[in-house]
Amino acid sequence: METVGEEATPRVAVVVFVVKGNSVLLGKRRSSIGNSTFALPGGHLEFGESFEGCAAREVMEETGLEIEKMKLLTVTNNVFKEAPKPSHYVTVFLRATLVDPNQDPVNVEPEKCEGWDWYDWFNLPTPLFWPLEKMVKTGFNPFSD
């Protein structure tokens, strides 16, 4: 994360609700921010990259899954004041489906995630990564258009 003086510079993250039936793909984080919480696949937007390109790249890098039919759902503004290093993320949320519904997720980055699995949207594991938890508590539904 870039900093200017003592202030953190906002970054852009692209996060993906990979959906299959009524389930979403979640992984348990291994990170200084949100360690041991369940989160969606995603990561930093690279210079010149589209949201869809970033989503496809991050999901492939983290889970080995190929996605398609990406749709922009919402954008959130998340400030992590309590983190070891304060950070500020503008997070772009997309929904996507699998190119091949028979694909299984692989934990490609075990140093960053304990593993990936499908969870029913109405029976999510806890604890959720707080930006996702906040969305769930407001009634957000990634399956609605």
Describe this structure in words.
Helix content is 14%, strand content 41%. It has helices spanning 51-63, 130-137, and strands at residues 3-4, 7-8, 11-20, 23-29, 38-39, 42-44, 67-80, 87-98, 113-120. Strands 3, 4, 5, 6, 7, 8 and 9 form a 7-stranded mixed β-sheet that branches. β1 and β2 (7-8) form a beta hairpin. The radius of gyration is 15 Å and the shape is globular. 28% of the residues are buried.
Query: pLDDT under 50 segments (min length 5)?
Result: 1-5
Instruction: Give the amount of beta strand, in percent.
Output: 35-45%
Radius of gyration: 15 Å
Give the overall pLDDT as a whole number: 92
* Shape annotation: globular
Q: How many strands in all?
A: 9
**Structural class, please?**
mainly beta
Helix content: 10-25%
Biggest sheet architecture? 7 strands, mixed
Order of helices and strands: EEEEEEHEEEH
Distance between the amino and carboxyl termini: 33 Å
Treating each run of at least 4 consecutive H or I residues as one helix, how many helices? 2
Throw out a few tags for this protein.
41% strand, single chain, 2 helices, mainly beta
Quick overview of this protein structure:
The protein has 2 helices and 9 strands.
List the helices and strands and how they pair.
Layout: E1 3-4, E2 7-8, E3 11-20, E4 23-29, E5 38-39, E6 42-44, H1 51-63, E7 67-80, E8 87-98, E9 113-120, H2 130-137
Parallel strand pairs: 3-8
Antiparallel strand pairs: 1-2, 3-4, 3-6, 4-5, 4-9, 7-8
